[in-house]
Amino acid sequence: MSHFTIRFIISYLLLVPLQALVFDHMVLFNVAVPFVFIYLIVMLPVTMSTNLSVLLGFLAGFGMDLFADTPGMNALSCTILAFARKPVFHLYVTMDDDLAGRSPSSQSMGSAEFLKYLLTLSLIFCTLIFSIEAFQIFIPRLMFTRIIASTLYTFLLLYTLDSLLIRRREKRL
Q1: Is the pLDDT at 98 greater than 60, yes or no?
Q2: I need a labelling partner for 143 at 20 to 30 A (CA). Which of 90, 98, 122, 129 fits?
């Protein structure tokens, strides 16, 4: 198995249960929910084929749906997020030759571009998940508040996670 495959499986086995058992219960003011498990999709190599990234996105969302008892909401949102990942990346970085199979990070993309990339993907996911949820009960003000608050909360936790992982990789070198 390749290094990427092993790393993805380990990340999947850690992040999906952690999301269901810990992060889903870290709700701020009964509005903001952090979605840390989307780190699986955000960190996929940019040079990966769209078909494979959409499949991995679906698997991440499906696993989350199994844990959280949300029938297809996360699977749909993660599949669309995985599909939108590469075009969002190219909004901020023009060439993917520099990454050559590496995952997007503040170290590989530069801090400003990575922050924009991460914030945009967090916004897309939160908009999708709360829009799907709005089909049950629609209160526009609450939905928009949840989208903005959850996007910022998710963004902060994902950036912190990325910073911790980058420091850990740098210490090994």
Answers
A1: no
A2: 90
Inter-residue contact 37 to 64 (CB < 8 Å): yes
Number of H helices, E strands in the chain: 7, 0
**Whole-angstrom Cα distance, residue 133 to residue 131?**
5
Q: Which residue has the tokens 């945009």?
A: 120
Interatomic CA distance for residues 41 and 11, integer angstroms: 11
Q: For the ranges 11-25, 57-71, 92-106, 136-150, which has the lowest average pLDDT? A: 92-106
- Of 49-53, 68-72, 164-168, which has the strongest mean pLDDT? 49-53
The answer to whether 146 and 130 have CB atoms below 8 angstroms apart is yes
Task: Enter the tokens of residue 149.
Answer: 């608050």
